[in-house]
Design goal:
Strand content: 15-25%
Largest sheet: 6 strands, antiparallel
CATH topology of the largest domain: Rossmann fold
CATH architecture of the largest domain: 3-Layer(aba) Sandwich
Distance between the termini: 91 Å
Strand order of the largest sheet: 1-2-3-4-6-5
Structural class: alpha/beta
């Protein structure tokens, strides 16, 4: 049904056409009863005459009409006039993101601000149990004041066939535009792999589309393309985006976020869009010198920085899922004349240990509630270094903050991640008489060892100057040299870039087995720190 200016559809006076979408034609109209302008979408006849689909639309419209958020164009309702079904929606003024992208790539700050508002809208909808299912630039409206509105929210569920139909009609535009290849191809480019396969979808399909939209804003290209619909579908299901197209100044956190959004397996993809919103907020609030394109000055001794223009591959730990370590590679190019960031005149050393000393240290000092890091801080503070302490809890996650400090050396108790979970959750220590308890202990240990590997990958590949000193008693109070060599080989096997940068130290074991605070341990760690960093011991006469 085509309407002209001046026509009336119930109480709505048509003011002019706005465009056409997968479900019908859209018009600007005036609500004569409430005296406000609205958008009216007249449904295609194939839908309007389908009782099952109209019934589904009515059910969904009631839910969608209750969704109110500043970044979502509100659906006012589904109405009928003389047999014609139409949707009445909030009128969002401005240009679509698709129209804006026709003029070229968006600056990073503009792209992130738009992405932040899209994420906020998605977050509100997902919390209400509503999934968009057809997020793309054409469904994002930008106002002249910088406000973002997501259009057609949640209508995809009402548009599709019943749940469980394994076909491509699960895409709203696929059903409505089978004869219009260009429009269909545009929608396919933002479909998640599970949506492309006709499987059931949830909020993670929106998270995928969000990643596609953000990628396109930053690069000016869709992450998945093809000359035909079949080619585009194959790209979505099979290929990876061209990550090299991301600008060198793209913040590492945003690169990591994109890779998480565009994981093909839903169970490895970003699960909550709130995480994307938080990541983008953090990036926006950070000083540009921290995450932008920078140059690291070269100087004497330990002031050697990353050479101008060097590409640094950062292995970001995405998660530990089912005992497996999930790693994504991100490229950070350092090499701008602006906002130079250099290492200071003194090496930066991080001391890392569990935050819960109970059950780890010897009885004489346990009452102090300190950690190995506390004692090492006292032991090393007279050296010409900058010391930081990190105490690890079961939910510890500060790799990014550590990386920003450009650490030269990280001294870590090998079992620190495990001890934090072990002590906070009350797993206890092996050996156990109960086989099930012993098995649970071993499973947890393997998972936490994966967390340590993830830490190596994130920080070690993020800054090629960082070295690691790992100390441990080893299983059963022994860590023989052959086991140390095998363990280092495992780390270097996973991350070849870390060869020659991981050092180990066996902690002397006393009669009671509680030796981490033994003076000999402290002296040995100090000797390793001095040797690894190439320091000179302070002259006692000058102190």
């Amino acid at each position: 049904m085509t309407l002209s200016t001046g026509d009336h559809l119930g109480r709505y006076e048509i003011l002019g056409p706005l465009g056409a979408g997968g479900m019908g034609e859209v018009y600007r109209a005036r609500d004569t009863e409430l005296d406000r302008e609205v958008a009216v979408k007249v449904l295609l006849e194939a839908v309007a005459q389908d009782p099952d689909r109209i019934a589904r639309f009515e059910r969904e419209a009631k839910l969608l009409a209750s969704l109110s958020h500043q970044n979502i164009a509100t659906l006012y309702g589904l109405e009928e006039h003389e047999g014609q079904r139409y949707l009445v929606m909030e009128l969002a003024e401005g240009e679509t993101l698709a129209e804006r992208l026709e003029r070229g790539i968006l600056p990073a700050d503009e792209a992130l601000e738009i992405a932040l508002q899209i994420a906020k809208g998605l977050e509100a909808a997902h919390e209400a149990g509503i999934v968009h299912r057809d997020l793309k630039p054409a469904n994002v409206m930008l106002s002249s004041e910088g406000k973002v509105k997501v259009l057609d929210f949640g209508l995809g569920k009402a548009w599709q066939t019943e749940e469980g139909d394994a076909d491509l009609t699960h895409s709203p535009t696929l059903t409505g535009q089978l004869t219009e290849g260009g429009m269909l191809l545009g929608t396919v480019a933002y479909m998640s792999p599970e949506q492309a396969r006709g499987k059931r979808v949830d909020n993670r399909t929106d998270n995928w589309a969000f990643g596609c939209v953000l990628y396109e804003m930053l690069t000016g290209r869709k992450p998945f393309q093809g000359e035909t619909i079949t080619d585009a579908l194959a790209a979505v299901v099979t290929f990876e985006p061209d990550w090299e197209r991301l600008p060198d100044t793209t913040p590492p956190g945003v690169q990591h976020l994109l890779r998480r959004c565009l994981q093909k397996a839903p169970n490895r993809r970003l699960h909550a869009i709130a995480d994307a919103r938080i990541e983008i907020e953090d990036v926006i609030n950070e000083p540009p010198a921290i995450y932008g394109s920078t140059q690291v000055a070269e100087g004497e001794g330990r002031r050697k920085g990353l050479s101008a223009g060097a590409a640094v591959a950062i292995a970001l730990a995405g998660a530990i899922v089912g005992g497996g370590l999930v790693i994504g590679l991100v490229k950070l190019t350092v090499g701008s004349d602006e906002a130079a960031v250099a290492r200071g005149p003194q090496p930066v050393v991080f001391l890392m240990d569990t935050l819960a000393p109970v059950g780890v240290y010897d009885p004489e000092t346990r009452s102090n509630s300190g950690t190995n890091a506390d004692d090492l801080n006292d032991l090393l503070r007279d050296l010409p270094i900058v010391l930081h302490k990190e105490t690890l809890g079961s939910t510890w996650h500060r790799e990014d903050q550590i990386l920003k400090q450009l650490p030269d050396l990280i001294v870590i108790h090998r079992s620190a991640f495990f001890h934090s979970i072990n002590l906070e959750l009350g797993f206890g220590y092996h050996p156990f008489d109960d086989p099930e308890r012993e098995a649970r202990f071993n499973r947890v240990y393997r998972l936490v060892d994966g967390k340590l590997m993830a830490f190596f990958g994130y920080v070690g590949l993020g800054d090629p100057q960082t070295k690691f000193l790992v100390y441990s008693r080893g299983s059963g109070g022994r860590w023989p040299e052959e086991d140390q060599i095998a363990w280092v080989a495992e780390v270097e096997g996973r991350f070849p870039q870390l060869r020659g940068r991981v050092f180990t130290m066996k902690v002397p074991v006393g009669p009671d087995g509680a030796s981490f605070r033994d003076p000999d341990t402290g002296r040995m760690i100090r000797q390793h720190v001095v040797s690894i960093l190439g320091l000179a011991e302070p002259d006692p006469k000058q102190q």
